[in-house]
Structure to design on (478 residues):
């Protein structure tokens, strides 16, 4: 096979190259270690001979399509694995498969296939597990009307499920270089193993033990971060990064940390984004607005608001990478790049902004009350003084009493103190940033109340003017 000749050349290279070059050569010039595991239902037509021919057909097709980039083995599922695949597919996971067959999950790529009868058709179901990152890809299905079509349907699922992998080599601000896995073995520019300009990658950090085995909790997907491939030179990719975080990927590599990236391919009609609050007791964030960045010169548009579960569906479209903006009121809370349709569901945690929004609404209402109050005070004061000038002192006294019944600065301050008490009661639920924003709003509220037109002495001045007018009339009468 082609990969054997490549392995011989690689052995010569590793004998004369330094360790870093050997590692790069091993990544670029050794094939993917691939396994295909097929489980057939208990049907009379699925004989051992038919199963063996199907597995052999898968190997033959892989040698033709992927040539030297794959070292492949097609396996029959043991009874424990077959039970999971045929009876408990929805609960598939790397850990459960490892418990059922530890050897099966060694390597780089594992393709799981089941073949069952469904009415008058045959149903083939499949999914990929990238063993290096332990990512289980989405389930895909094919239907066949006749038995001989099953091997081709199985291969079609495998080829459609394959996701190429790259390794991040350098990070300089927003520019990233990455190297395609087995890229040195690709001879066909249209190969499915190649990553092309225009593709998008999702970065994943893998931390290893000294032995090279995966460390405990060593897989860390880098959330809400997308690498966009701008150009390619042989196996080397030049990418730009978009992320909801400032420094999402460690800028320095180490011997025990792998900075990997897998191709994001939208194979689902939509991705459901779920917004949750940060902290020890996360809960759904309901009613938050989600906008999507416009394409080219188009403006940002509102997709909708999160429902009672904190979720919103982002449909797949003509543009591969979209950036979501999460807002609550006038406050931008999160910037979330993603590839809609690549994952079925994605969870985003952000600050719970409801108390800040409540405070913002209180401040807006307070501004309205102050504006209305200032206008009414000014009108009443003008009318009162006009009545004094017209010597209608009884009317002036009535207007003075009406003026005294208006809300004053002290009343508004009591409302501000009450709002501050509500915030203080929920202080434990607020993060530092939200607290700072609320404190700023409350400071603006107290500043607003220093308005000179709300001076509490004004009513005393008006009362004196009325008394002086009355005294003047009394003196004139004497």
């Amino acid at each position: 096979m082609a990969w054997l000749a490549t392995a011989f050349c690689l052995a010569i290279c590793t004998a004369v190259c330094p360790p870093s070059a050997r590692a790069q050569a091993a990544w670029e010039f050794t094939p993917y270690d691939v396994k295909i595991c097929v489980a057939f239902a208990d049907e009379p037509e699925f004989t051992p001979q038919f199963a063996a021919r199907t597995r052999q057909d898968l190997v033959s097709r892989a040698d033709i399509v992927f040539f030297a980039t794959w070292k492949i083995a097609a396996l029959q599922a043991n009874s424990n694995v077959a039970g999971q695949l045929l009876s408990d597919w929805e609960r598939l996971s790397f850990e459960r498969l490892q418990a059922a067959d530890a050897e099966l999950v060694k390597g780089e790529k594992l393709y799981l296939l089941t073949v069952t009868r469904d009415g008058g058709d045959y149903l083939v179901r499949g999914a990929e597990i990238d063993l290096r990152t332990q990512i289980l890809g989405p389930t895909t299905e094919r239907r066949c009307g006749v038995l001989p079509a099953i091997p081709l349907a199985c291969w079609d699922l495998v080829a459609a499920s394959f996701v190429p992998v790259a390794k991040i080599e350098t990070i300089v601000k927003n520019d990233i270089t990455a190297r395609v896995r087995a890229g040195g073995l690709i001879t066909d520019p249209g190969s499915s193993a190649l990553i092309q300009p225009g593709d998008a990658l999702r970065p994943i950090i893998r931390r290893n033990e000294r032995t090279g085995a995966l460390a405990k909790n060593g897989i860390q997907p880098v959330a809400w971060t997308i690498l966009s491939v701008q150009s390619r030179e042989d196996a080397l990719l030049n990418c730009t990064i978009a992320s909801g975080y400032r420094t999402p990927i460690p800028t320095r590599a180490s011997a025990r940390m792998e900075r990997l990236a897998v191709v994001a391919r939208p194979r689902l009609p939509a991705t459901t984004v779920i917004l949750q609050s940060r902290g020890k007791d996360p809960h759904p964030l309901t009613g938050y607005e989600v906008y999507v960045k416009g394409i080219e010169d188009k403006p940002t548009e509102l997709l909708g608001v999160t429902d009672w579960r904190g979720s919103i569906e982002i449909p797949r479209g003509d543009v591969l990478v979209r950036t979501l903006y999460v807002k609550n009121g006038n406050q931008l809370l999160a910037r979330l790049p993603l590839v809609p349709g690549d994952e079925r569901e994605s969870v985003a945690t952000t600050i719970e902004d409801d108390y800040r929004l409540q405070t913002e609404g209180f401040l807006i209402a307070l501004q309205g009350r102050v504006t209305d109050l200032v206008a009414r005070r000014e009108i009443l004061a003008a009318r009162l003084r006009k009545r004094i000038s017209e010597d209608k002192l009884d009317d002036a006294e009535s207007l003075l009493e009406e003026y005294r019944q208006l809300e004053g600065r002290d009343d508004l301050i009591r409302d501000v103190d009450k709002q501050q008490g509500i915030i203080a009661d929920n202080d434990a639920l607020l993060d530092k940033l939200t607290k700072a924003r609320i404190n700023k709003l409350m400071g603006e509220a107290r500043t607003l109340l220093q308005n000179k037109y709300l001076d509490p002495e004004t009513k005393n001045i008006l009362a004196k003017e009325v008394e002086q007018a009355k005294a003047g009339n009394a003196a004139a009468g004497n």
About this structure: The longest helix spans residues 354-389.
